[in-house]
Every structure is written in C-alpha cells, then in structure tokens.
Amino acid sequence: YDSATAATIPFTTTATVTTGGKALDVRPRDNDDVENVQVLARKAGWKLSKRALRRTVRGGETVPFAITVRTGDRAVSNARICDRLPDGQACWKVRYLAPNSGRTLRIMTRAERSFRTRRVRNVAVARARNAAKRAAAARVGIRPAFGGLGGGVTG
Prior knowledge:
The chain is mainly beta and 155 residues long. The protein contains no helices and 12 strands. The strands form 4 sheets. Strands 6-12-11-8-9 form a 5-stranded mixed sheet, with no helix packed on it. Strand 2 (18-19) and strand 3 form a beta hairpin. It is rod-shaped. It starts with 5 loop residues before the first strand and ends in a 12-residue tail after the last strand.
C-alpha cells in the first residue's frame, strides 16, 4: 500500500450483555475497548493523453500539443503534470480535479532544426499523491527547414 493513501484512526467497540432486553452486566464501564485501525483509501483512477495538434512541421516551426487529464469516480488532488522538453521540462500544478472531470493543458514548443526528416516522441507525465503515475506520448514528424537543402559555406 501507499502510506499517502492510508490513515490510522481509533476504533471503539462496546460490549453489552442482555437477556430479554434487560442488562445483566454489573460493571458496564469495563466493556469498552479502543484499538487503532489502519484504513486504506483506494487510489483515484485517472487517464492522461497527449496529442500533437500538427502531425508534421519544418525545423524551427512551432508545434502545439494538447495534454488532457481525466479523472474516474474519485477526485485527484495536488496533481503535477510535466512535459519533457529537449531543454528540460514544463510543469503545471492542478490542486483539485473533481470526480468524472478533466482538464486540458496546451503547450507550444519549437521543433529543433534538422538537416534530415525524422520523427520525435514527446512525453508527458502526471503524478498525484492519491493516484498512480501516468504517462502519455505524442509523435511529430520534423522536416528540414528549407526543403532538405543543408547549409554550408558559399563564396
């Protein structure tokens, strides 16, 4: 279990001896017992998706992405959604997502310049104390910035 989803609470039980609706216990004060019981909360279910809003770009152009997080029948609290970028990562904090709801984050990145056509994979990760880690990826094709002609020295 995850300690973030567990709590210890006191649980009191009381025993009473009766017959025919009449109490037979001469010392009812000693019938209580207190135990500490650990209660485990079920983790919230949620989904993360990511999609590139342009499938192919030229090097140097911007690429818009949509990152969507959706909850199931339980709320998610203190979520952190991070998008891994070539120069680090961009993160957002979402304090509370109600049950059966969602939120979409949009990010604009710039495609790296390249002298060859290639496909890149961009990954987003979502974490929350009361939900399992989720990851989602989107792929984008990057073409050379100037029709495939490489730079060089002229003169």
